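Q: C-alpha coordinates for this one, please.
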Amino acid sequence: MSFDSYASWLDQLKTIGLSDIIFRVESEIKEDALYIEINDTQRIRSDNDYMIIGYTYQVRLYVTKSNSPFIEKVSEMLTEGLAEGKWDEKNQMYVYSGMISIAGKYET
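A: Here is the predicted structure, written as C-alpha coordinates:
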Protein backbone atom coordinates (compact mmCIF):
# COMPACT_ATOMS: atom_id res chain seq x y z
CA MET A 1 0.00 0.00 0.00
CA SER A 2 1.06 3.57 -0.60
CA PHE A 3 0.14 6.56 1.53
CA ASP A 4 0.45 10.25 0.73
CA SER A 5 0.47 11.41 4.36
CA TYR A 6 1.01 10.22 7.90
CA ALA A 7 -2.66 10.97 8.64
CA SER A 8 -3.94 8.71 5.84
CA TRP A 9 -1.64 5.89 7.01
CA LEU A 10 -2.79 6.32 10.60
CA ASP A 11 -6.45 6.35 9.52
CA GLN A 12 -5.91 3.05 7.69
CA LEU A 13 -4.15 1.50 10.72
CA LYS A 14 -7.13 2.41 12.91
CA THR A 15 -9.43 0.23 10.77
CA ILE A 16 -7.67 -3.09 11.51
CA GLY A 17 -8.64 -3.41 15.19
CA LEU A 18 -5.36 -2.98 17.08
CA SER A 19 -5.80 -2.44 20.82
CA ASP A 20 -3.73 0.76 20.60
CA ILE A 21 -1.49 2.81 18.30
CA ILE A 22 1.14 4.72 20.27
CA PHE A 23 3.51 7.36 18.94
CA ARG A 24 6.35 6.98 21.44
CA VAL A 25 8.23 4.41 23.47
CA GLU A 26 6.37 3.15 26.51
CA SER A 27 7.67 1.59 29.69
CA GLU A 28 4.58 -0.65 29.75
CA ILE A 29 3.90 -2.65 26.60
CA LYS A 30 0.32 -3.50 25.60
CA GLU A 31 -0.85 -6.61 23.75
CA ASP A 32 -1.85 -6.14 20.09
CA ALA A 33 -0.47 -2.59 20.09
CA LEU A 34 1.62 -0.78 17.50
CA TYR A 35 4.39 1.57 18.64
CA ILE A 36 5.60 4.23 16.18
CA GLU A 37 8.78 6.33 16.26
CA ILE A 38 10.31 8.73 13.74
CA ASN A 39 13.40 7.01 12.39
CA ASP A 40 14.75 9.51 9.86
CA THR A 41 13.88 12.43 7.61
CA GLN A 42 13.91 12.38 3.82
CA ARG A 43 15.70 15.48 2.57
CA ILE A 44 16.59 17.28 -0.64
CA ARG A 45 19.89 19.16 -0.45
CA SER A 46 21.08 22.14 -2.42
CA ASP A 47 24.39 23.73 -1.44
CA ASN A 48 24.07 24.48 2.29
CA ASP A 49 20.28 24.32 2.40
CA TYR A 50 17.89 21.40 2.58
CA MET A 51 14.18 20.77 2.63
CA ILE A 52 12.48 17.91 4.43
CA ILE A 53 10.25 16.06 1.98
CA GLY A 54 9.09 13.20 4.18
CA TYR A 55 9.77 10.92 7.12
CA THR A 56 10.66 7.30 7.75
CA TYR A 57 8.88 5.71 10.70
CA GLN A 58 10.03 2.66 12.69
CA VAL A 59 7.16 0.52 13.97
CA ARG A 60 6.99 -2.33 16.48
CA LEU A 61 4.00 -4.63 16.76
CA TYR A 62 3.54 -6.59 20.01
CA VAL A 63 1.34 -9.71 19.85
CA THR A 64 0.92 -12.79 22.05
CA LYS A 65 0.50 -15.26 19.18
CA SER A 66 2.94 -15.81 16.32
CA ASN A 67 -0.02 -16.31 13.96
CA SER A 68 -1.88 -13.13 14.94
CA PRO A 69 -3.90 -11.65 12.04
CA PHE A 70 -2.42 -8.23 12.91
CA ILE A 71 0.98 -9.36 11.60
CA GLU A 72 -0.25 -9.62 8.02
CA LYS A 73 -2.51 -6.56 8.25
CA VAL A 74 0.25 -4.26 9.55
CA SER A 75 2.84 -5.79 7.21
CA GLU A 76 0.73 -4.82 4.19
CA MET A 77 0.89 -1.17 5.29
CA LEU A 78 4.68 -0.95 5.52
CA THR A 79 7.33 -0.25 2.90
CA GLU A 80 8.96 -3.69 3.13
CA GLY A 81 6.67 -5.57 5.50
CA LEU A 82 7.54 -6.77 8.98
CA ALA A 83 10.75 -8.52 9.96
CA GLU A 84 10.55 -11.99 11.49
CA GLY A 85 9.14 -11.82 15.00
CA LYS A 86 11.28 -12.26 18.08
CA TRP A 87 10.10 -13.47 21.45
CA ASP A 88 10.32 -10.81 24.19
CA GLU A 89 10.71 -12.76 27.43
CA LYS A 90 10.13 -9.74 29.67
CA ASN A 91 6.75 -8.87 28.13
CA GLN A 92 5.84 -12.44 27.11
CA MET A 93 4.98 -11.31 23.57
CA TYR A 94 6.28 -11.55 20.03
CA VAL A 95 7.76 -8.37 18.61
CA TYR A 96 7.63 -7.63 14.88
CA SER A 97 9.33 -4.54 13.47
CA GLY A 98 9.30 -2.70 10.19
CA MET A 99 9.53 0.69 8.52
CA ILE A 100 7.46 2.95 6.34
CA SER A 101 8.55 6.00 4.37
CA ILE A 102 5.92 8.64 3.77
CA ALA A 103 6.63 11.64 1.59
CA GLY A 104 5.26 15.01 2.54
CA LYS A 105 2.39 16.44 0.56
CA TYR A 106 3.15 19.86 -0.87
CA GLU A 107 0.91 22.13 -2.88
CA THR A 108 2.11 25.11 -4.90
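A few notes: The first strand starts at residue 20 and ends at 22. The mean pLDDT is 89.
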